[in-house]
Batch of 3 targets.
Target 1
Amino acid sequence: MTVKIVTDSTSYLPQELVETYDIDIVSLGVVFEDSSYSERNISNSFFYSKLAESHEIPTSSQPAITEFADIFSKNAREGHQTVAILISSKMSGTFNTAVMAKSMVLEKQPEAVIKVIDSGSNSMQLGFAALAAAKAAKAGKSISRVIECAKENIARSRFIFVPHNLDYLKKGGRIGLASALIGNIMKIKPILTVSEGIVKVMKKVRTKKRAVKALIDTLMTDIKNYGLGDVIVHHIECEKEASELARIIGAELNQQVNTAAIGPVVGTHVGPGAIGLVYYTTDKLT
């Protein structure tokens, strides 16, 4: 039996990799007061323009249980085992929905083999884990080894980013009004990371220039101590800045560094202008 990989839209995997490794993507959505959208059916520019015009922060919506059930059932009928690697269960109900879909499918197809994995993150930290699993699956590895590859990648990865300002973090309830006002006035830039399934402040610096330097310094320190598997530059509507950061890091490492845009569901609470890095090392991070 072959293993098929499923992940969700917050992985922001480049489409060419999705196609190369035959990864199924289940889409989350965003809900405004007057409209709702599947994340994969709208452009980032449309969403962030609408976000800027909105008086309220939109909410995110998890996939319908039938979306997972349909994929799980189809894979089972075709003789495939399924590994679903999904956004942190502390950030979204998507993981729990997939678990319920698994139960639904097993009632009618008890022979189905379905494993649902909580990545503890999102964006390309999730994406790299799904990609590691997909590469193992394509190489014909067993389902247990495919799962191990995903979990090993998660243990070796880091997601660090800096928002352009604190307004969207305030709107989303991530920080208080006073902290946002003081932070913006004093040009304080929190460097954020995903740890234990949630967003946390790793450190604070003054000015975005220093924050971006801190991103690079953190990456280079980790590479020195743990080696490098791969790295990608994430951004929200600041492609030029991201390309420059990728160029700088690429020159340091003497390799090509790609960029990837963060979409509506994750970007809602961070806002345009955010920039960051996702990377994984060759040895486990401590």
Target 2
Amino acid sequence: MALGMLVDGKWTTEWTERDRSGKFNRMPTQFRDRITADGSSEFPAVADRYHLYVSLACPWAHRTLLVRSLKGLQDAIGVSIVDPVLSEQGWFFSDAPGAIPDTVNGKHYLQEIYLQAKPDYTGRVTVPVLWDQQTQTIVNNESREIIRMFDVEFGAIAPSDLSLFPTDLQAAIDQTLDAIYMPINNGVYRAGFATSQAAYEEAVTELFLALDHWETVLGQQRYLCGDRLTAADICLFTTLLRFDAVYHGHFKCNLKRIADYPNLWNYLKHIYQYPGVQETCNLDHIKRHYYMSQTAINPNRIVPKGPVIDWVDWRTE
């Protein structure tokens, strides 16, 4: 299916995230309000008010679903899960295995949620979306900000006392999130969506230089920011999880697999087995989304059977 967007509230399959040199330039997210525990915003951190729209295939959405699970917020924040395969109208809700319909607004397409919040919206229709049932609008659709709100602002009502943004590591976490974003999290897309050889090679080179760097770091410590699991690890994990199954082949990020990096590979499998993580991971949705939705890259929509990945064979030393 062609990737699309809304322009002045109307759906179009024209896509404008590539420049003349063939580089992929991601559009910025536009809904950036904040939920606060102290009441300093119009969106208080309370249970049963907010609803999360996600795709199990999308690494950005996966971050929010993962933090919601790790914090034990499943009963406080509802969720809807789109079908893994994009339609001609973008993300849509279905009764496919693993999908959850829109029980809050009763919509069929995710674009309808965007238009309910802003009828003349222009931009990509992306997940995650954090929806406020009281004011009937989108609070935020930026994954990095949503996971911070789930961890920090919902801390008082979250059953888990796990802190993914501990105060003493705030600076290191933010620096690490910045460091991994462009070359790795967005880098796989910069490679996969490039339309020139030069743009592709630039992205792939930066991607593997960054992976080499973090392979070295993880040879010296358990997590990206030291000895504790933080939001930085969540944000790297959701990219690494998809790498060998999708990015290595589909996006041509094939200098190495993550399985070829001893430290990154064991780090990935260690986090996968962290309580609350595995149930948010769905390789079927992941593979079907990329291989069946992005027909400019895979026109025959054939989904590979592999790779066979053993997520539980890991070492602790």
Target 3
Amino acid sequence: MMKENKKLTASQIALNMVKTDNTDRRFYETSVKETDVVLNELNTTVNGLSEDMVEKMRDLYGSNKVTHGRKKSLLKRIFEAFVNPFTAILSVLAIVSFVTDVILAEPGEKNLTTVIIILTMVIISGFLRFVQETRSGNAAERLSEMVKTTTAVERQENGRHEILLEDVVVGDIVYLAAGDMVPADVRILKAKDLFVSQAALTGESEPVEKIPAIVKQGEYDSITEYHNLAFMGSTVVSGSATCVVVATGDDTLFGAIAKSMTAKPIQTSFEKGVSSVSWILIRFMLVMVPVVLFVNGFTKGDWLGALLFAISVAVGLTPEMLPMIVTTCLAKGAVAMSKKKTIIKNLNAIQNLGSMDVLCTDKTGTLTQDKVVLEYHLDVHGNEDLRVLRHAFLNSYYQTGLKNLMDISIIERAEKDSVKETTLQGLSTNYVKVDEIPFDFERRRMSVVVADKNGKTQMITKGAVEEMLSISSYAEYNGKVEPLTDSIKQDILATVDRLNDEGMRVIAVAQKTNPSPVGAFSVRDEADMVLIGYLAFLDPPKETTVAAIKALNEHGVAVKILTGDNDRVTRCICRKVGLKVDNLLLGSDVERMSEEELKKAVESTNVFAKLSPQQKATIVSLLRENGHVVGYMGDGINDAAAMKVADVGISVDTAVDIAKESAHVILLEKDLMVLENGIIEGRKTYANMIKYIKMTASSNFGNMFSVLAASAFLPFLPMASIHLILLNLIYDISCTAIPWDNVDKEFLMIPRRWNPSSISKFMIWIGPTSSVFDITTYLLMYFIICPAMTGGQLFHQITDPAMRTYYIALFQAGWFVESMWSQTLVIHMIRTPKIPFIQSRASLPVIGLSFTGIAVLTTIPFTALGSAIGLAALPAVYFAWLALTIVCYMALATLLKKIYVRRYGELL
């Protein structure tokens, strides 16, 4: 029988590595001891540590910070900015050039100019990349400091209070609730229906239950299976617990894994696309350079000159500025968003925002304000009833789980009304909590058991109306406790529907007196309840929601609502925010559909209500499978799964820990219009990157035709190697302003996705355009300009060596200047489908640098530098021909652009 070959994940391999040291022994010893022994060994009590002991424990065990790999040193960041395939190629070319121009050259002919120019290109590219990465990193770091994750601890002087995760020390008593991140490695002291997700540690998606019971020897194979230990990096899915911290920071299991492995981030489709284009251009260069070398070597007979020319062509075909342009564009977008109080946790999230065409969003706290107002507390007939508010307060106040916005609203309302209502006074002191059954998203309710001073025990449950009706057998109806008949249910649902239609969120409250014995409470006890009434909350939309949804639609982003709330409230909110409900599906509808049916339904449906967290994630995944780039915006624990599977997860600073952890983008302000800004920045980023990629690819493709034509038919090199390299340096400097270029408004109105196939089409269409005018320049210089300046003789007719040298210098100067004009103007031609300078203008930095480059290069043949590198001053008549050439070039390029756009729908 063949043994199953089980593939281990990186995390599991790391866990096995960790088990080889003393970590597992320490955790094992903690798990097999009684809780009082563990507390004693950690010098703590159930009331927590004193402030003196906190400092001692911090000194002894260190702070609660994990070293996620060492912070990159300045030297390493500089090294990484300079190391990429393009700079490697240039460095090799510089070495070859040094050998040929210096080491092998005759004593009087040694020349370092080519080497210096190539190294200058490398320095400019690397330096600009380093500066931009540093700027974006600093901006993100400053903003990240504004997002604080806290945990609830018990300490002797301050009682139960919130502290920053990094301030937790060994021996702290920690309280966990749904939505919390486990702040350190902890031993469970008490737990109620505690389920945690350990996916970050083990890769297992299913939550595991944790209980306080002692672990028996040999009960488990793996540390993470220990049922009374919870680990940093885990998140609480449901339930609550009281724990003691046993390890912090690098001493945690998470810290040990972080030290034993360095996981490379997954390449996004965008990164893969840029990489594929890079290697296409490199392969193109590696194929063409030998062709140029052999053609020139065989036709001219000067193999050293041919080699130097081939090296220069290689430099010209190497898009050495590509890494800098990509990094600068992304970093510039991140810095721009940081000024709008938005944290971009991953630079590529900027580009994903720009390509997003569907935004799925939760309703509560994202589209609506994160301030829920309790409008009514009603009996089952819809009349105001303080008794309903009193029971709701007891449930919300005494629960230890995650207090949501409704809990806070109930507590605030009861405390406010208690000033004049005696029945609401003393509720926080006259009762003691006996037990609780925490909330989860399957039951959609939570229960608290309290006892008053007379010994009367009550179980009070609140939750979604349908779920509450399913566990209630009775209702307080017409002043009496009546069996919950279908007729009474219809009356209750009619009242709830009316409130829902007014945009109210309604939850029901039920109770039963003297339930099961103490210590035996579970979900099974949520039965035969007496429904006493309901609470109606107003959850008004954010002020910017209407404008944000309109702006998103105008920019080609479809908005879909994915909420756990009911359909009536959802419809009302959609109406208020101007979102037309094309089709609405409930979680129950989703459950009944096959995957293929749901794949079709997600396209035509824009509102989904009463969804479970997993259903939200499924819908996002199916939209992505259908070819959409999907963003998901949420702030609750029920949104974390959907955020993780989305192309870009968006959260707010008030979100629960796990939501912020899962997000790629965090909004620090409540203004949803920031989303529009993010999308525009993403599209600007994409536009300016694709401009450089397409202009480089097409320019290189065109230059190859020009060089091959000249190499095959001219009796001398069309340009000396130093000319090509100098031309390339000045052109590269002109390109450094592209990340700051303007982008046409029309381009920003629709989502932009990475499409590598468009680059090859663009190369074939636009590239040869410049070649046409390079060849006309060859003909002009060879048959008209040069003969006019050398007594009417063509090159092969001249016998005087000095005159032949002048003929070549003049020819090369003519192509040198024309190449710069055409190569630089292509920036302005390709950056827009419109007529450049008239219908669409580049930014001032692009105009300034490009025309400065043209001016500098045009004057070189008239200077001492020009004479030193073998160029001759051009006659005035040349510039008349040059003007005609450039006008014709721009006319042809504009015509081809229009044909290309008509055929393929877009230019960039």
